[in-house]
Write a structure and sequence with these properties.
117 residues, mainly alpha, Hypothetical protein af1432, 8 helices, globular
Amino acid sequence: MTTTELIRLLPEDVRQHTLRVADGLHGDAHLVALLHDVVEDTEATLADLEVEPHVLAAVAAITRDPAETYFAYIERVRLVPLARLVKLADLEDHLGQVATLRPSLKKRYLKALELLK
């Protein structure tokens, strides 16, 4: 499936978040940002992504495995520079949504930002 087709599968609120995250990024980072929630939030798999191997590796790194802890996930993201860059933008966007951000998530996101910077 094309990137556009995959993004259309996302729920509207997730799609808007994805577009905000991608907005400030360029090149491969922009593409990873567009795809960063596709595997987690749709029926699509990594095999459905028609992208270069290094982009696929970054999307794989930024896709959280439900079996891992959040901070094990953050550590894994930290090891892949392209995924790390997108995750930083992702966290900044989440933190910017003050009207809907729960205090527990804010604390976790701030710690994740600290670990990734």
